[in-house]
Amino acid sequence: MQPSPGGSELEDVEDAIVDGDVAYQRGTAAAALRHRDFRIVYGGTFASNIGTWMQNVILGLYAVKLTGSGFFVGLLYFAQLGPLLFLSMMGGLLADRVDRRRLLVSLQILQGTLSFALALVAWTSHPSHVLIVVIVFAIGIANALGAPGLSAILPTLVPREDMTGAVALWSVQMNLSRVIGPAIGALIFAKLDAGPVFAINAATYLFAVAGLLLARYPRYVHAPGVDRTEHRLLSGVRIARADPVIRYVLLTLFSFSFFSLAFVGIMPLVAKYNLELSSGLYGLLYASFGLGAASGAFTVGTILARRSKIALLRPGFIAFAVAVAAFGLVRNVPAAFVIAAVLGYVYFLVITCLSTILQKQLRNEERGRVMALWIMGFGGTVPLGVLVAGPFAKSHSTEVLLVGAVWALVLALFSSARSLREKGAPDD
To answer: Are 412 and 346 a contacting pair, CB within 8 Å?
Structure first.
């Protein structure tokens, strides 16, 4: 029988004392890393995500190179992440009803196979635009079905007291991937084109598969509920509607993603037409953004580990508004690198705080279905915003980013710590 993550709590404290380590602090990143299964899944996912972000970022550059069209850039970005908007609820239902290990491993293998197929298409002398979109869309479908399950197993790898550190570290690895992957991918793309980038990404899925096979975590969750499939699919929505904290987090995330985060998808166009950057420099610009994002997530799990996450939201939204407006207006390349790093920092500080509040509010038996809604908001709504903004981004990227800044200020008005405490949000 598998031990629960909380069962090792006394052992972890004892190790900290006996080994003479720094003072043991619950909720920190260091505390999360003491748990073996978290380290295994974390390491495997980190290595895989480096390849994923190589491909994700290079797809935008590849779309610009093939067509020079803002619409095609938006279409490809939507094909890549848009399925999260439509299929995450099904993925959440699967995560709460079937063997999570079998589901996640199968989908990781499928994504690796499809990425290799994408490499083969890119290696042809005249790549089919339609086939590229179809393959990317298929990868997006597999990702959408698996993402809620991966998010659902994270809290089962550590006790609740260490969840803040685990969520922060998860965000850190996602964003360090944004640093390492784009920097490597842009260099390979500049020298060898897109095919080798996609092939390397295909190989990195093996790391995620190894981590999911070696770690110990609950493979089945016996979630109470009715048997009708449509009721199961909508149960996550019902859970969110019944809890004012969950409802606030998800509504905030959906609107923030649509109006304020389109800059992530149109960044290749900003780099080319506002800053006139080469593909190699664009990779470094995106890496600067990723480094800032990783720093923001890491700060939440270390320096700000004991600070109230609900109290950080309002200043976080205001800082984001200033940074995204500055990024839209800047035309100086060195300044753009600095602003991109600051933008990444405040962006993921806000996202990590929202994620931590949500994770602490959920019970394990409902986590997969509600995290599916989170993924719809965070992953699926952004490409919808990019698809809408894409046709305007070539000539009006500044205006697109300023709209995002204004909406972030609106969200700041509705992010009162006092109001969230009254709703029952965890004040830690």
So the answer is: no
CA 296 to chain centre: 13
Nearest-angstrom CA–CA distance, 258 and 388: 9
* Centroid of chain to Cα 68: 27
| pLDDT tens-digit map of 383-405 | 889 999 988 888 889 999 999 99
* 215-to-38, 117, 226 alpha-carbon distances in Å: 8, 29, 31
CA–CA gap between residue 3 and residue 17 (Å, rounded)? 23
The answer to whether 34 touches 6, Cβ cutoff 8 Å, is: no
The one-character DSSP state at 206 is H
**DSSP secondary structure letter of residue 161:** G
Note the pLDDT of residue 301: 72
What are the distances in angstroms from CA 331 to CA 64, 163, 234, 271, 390? Answer: 20, 40, 46, 10, 20
Quick one: pLDDT band at residue 360, thresholds 50, 70, 90? confident
CA distances from 299 to 34, 237, 290, 304, 306 (A): 19, 31, 14, 6, 11
Q: Are the C-beta atoms of 110 and 170 separated by less than 8 Å?
A: no
Residue type, 410: V
More confident residue, 293 or 251: 251
Instruction: List pLDDT tens digits, range 268-323.
Output: 889 988 999 988 888 889 889 988 888 887 788 778 877 888 999 999 999 999 99
Rounded to whole angstroms, what are the CA distances from 405 to 13, 326, 398?
44, 9, 11
pLDDT of amino acid 428 = 65
Question: What domains appear along the chain, each with residue ranges and CATH number?
Answer: 25-423 (1.20.1250.20)
Element (H, E) at 218: none
Question: Are residues 369 and 93 in contact, defined by beta-carbon separation less than 8 angstroms?
Answer: yes
Distance CA 286, CA 325 (A): 17
